[in-house]
Amino acid sequence: MAVNGTAAAGHGLRRDAVGLREVLFQSMTDMAPGAAIAASIPAGVAFAGGALPLAVLFALVASLFTAWSVSQLAGEIPAAGSLATYVARGIHPAAGFLVAWAYVMVGWLVAPLVLLQLGFTTAATLNTEFGWPADLWWPWSVLGILIVSAVGFFGVRASARMGTILGIFEIAVFAIMAVLLVIHAGEHNTLSVFTTKYTPDGQYHGLSGVIAGSVFTTLAFLGFESAAPLAEEARNPRRTVQLAVLLSTLIIGALYVFTTYAIDVAFGPAGFSRFTTGTGSASWQGVARDLYGLFWVLVFFAIINSTLANSNAGVNVASRTSFAMGRIHAFPPQFARVGERHRSPVIAIATGSVISLAVMLGLGFGYDPTTAFGMIGTALVILLVAIYLVVNVACIGYFARRGRGFNPISHLLVPLIGIAAFLPAWLAGAGIKTPGLSFITPLTSPLSYMGPAAAIWMILGVLYLGYLYLRHPQRVVDVGLVHLDAEPVDGPADAKRS
């Protein structure tokens, strides 16, 4: 593996530290099934109404095709740089660098997204049960940041084990409740929720509502690829990462479709547009309280567990990508510094924690925690779905360039379908009105602010990329060279050439 700095000195990430179970739950918990079922997916209700299960199905199909492309590349290029390295090899190193730039921001935004939910869910629940102030959401969110940062410092084994334990609990709780809801619905079970019949009247009626709702159901799937950054710490990384990416998408996707269907038919699809992400009667927690008494406590803890597990997975993604870019000096080399005992990228974790805290508190107090949740979620969809689109292109490019082993279905047709399936949700989230595609309706403010915000971040990345090309061009080239199969070097390649 080509490395430099501290990594070259034998202080890189810990090899063979985790197996398939831990890597699988890295992807599964990064999708935050409990938090997604309770908040991310219901955030699309205002647009899709009772057709929300159809919006979930759209997101699942898109995610499966892209997961296949990611798995194909993961089997060829095991690297902590993951998606950035794939794109650098499949398209161009400059494109790989910009993917790393966007992907690190994605990791930094995951924690504030779900920890805002931790804050407003805990505050609302304590207000209902004990009369605590409903606006004291921020202490719980800050506590969450401190917990996941501390776990990250203890290394990938500790964070992966935490994710596995929390993930099993949240999945079990919502799966059991969904079964109970389907039984409760009885004769009201209907497949018509997988059509546009129950979309609300107005601007987002029909397919427009389903597409707009799919921005938030897509948010629930984001992270299925996050097993990839653990490739250099996993045992048998080619097989392990491939299986983890595909299985996590299938398992959690099936859970999303089933649970969303269950709550829809049990609540009533005609009035489902009133369903919320909060803790009142028209919410997962509220329905659990009304129908099953103290079962709401398990739902509450499943949501809390999910927010912690998801933010923990986000820390892993951002820190490993930063580490990979730092060791080739494409990002500040301090990001490649790892702790002596636990071999975790301590500077990358600390930096990400500070940025996540600033985003969380800035938007949470600037608007309110639920609005901030929607804004950050929209930004994540814009950035990460754009990365998925590019990765599909990289899959085509990598295998076409390699020549041998090119499969027209796996390496051309599937990536093209992945692009077509994700494009509508990305256009809606980015606020791009497309001629001839009248069913794509951009989101309203303040969610619409996230398109320009994401564009500004990427413009900064382009400017930094220009600087690297002028001063240290080899660092950009190295984005595609740092992986387990690369020949080792003793230090920064551009330093050798100076």
Describe the structure in your own words:
- By secondary structure, the chain is mainly α.
- The protein has one domain: Amino acid/polyamine transporter I, CATH 1.20.1740.10.
- It is 68% helix and 0% strand.
- It contains 19 helices and no strands.
- Helix 5 packs antiparallel against helix 11 (237-267) and helix 7 runs antiparallel to helix 17 (450-471).
- The longest helix has 38 residues, at 93-130.
- The two termini are 22 Å apart.
- It is a multi-pass membrane protein.
- Its main location: membrane.
- One of its GO terms (biological process) is transmembrane transport.
- One of its GO terms (cellular component) is membrane.
Rg estimate, integer Å: 22 Å
The rounded distance between the terminal residues' Cα atoms is 22 Å
Second CATH tier, the architecture: Up-down Bundle
Low-confidence stretches: 1-11, 483-498
Helix content: 55-70%
For the record, what is the CATH homologous superfamily label?
Amino acid/polyamine transporter I
Overall geometry comes to globular
Number of domains: 1
Membrane topology: Multi-pass membrane protein
GO cellular component, one term: membrane
Domain Amino acid permease/ SLC12A: 23-398
Keywords: Membrane, Transmembrane, Transmembrane helix
What does the secondary structure layout of this molecule look like, with pairings?
Layout: H1 5-8, H2 20-30, H3 33-40, H4 45-48, H5 52-74, H6 83-90, H7 93-130, H8 138-153, H9 156-185, H10 207-221, H11 237-267, H12 284-292, H13 295-327, H14 346-366, H15 369-402, H16 409-430, H17 450-471, H18 473-477, H19 493-497
Helix pairs in contact: 2-9, 2-11, 2-13, 3-10, 3-13, 5-10, 5-11, 5-15, 5-16, 6-7, 6-15, 7-8, 7-13, 7-14, 7-15, 7-17, 8-9, 8-13, 8-14, 9-11, 9-13, 10-15, 10-16, 12-13, 13-14, 14-15, 15-16, 15-17
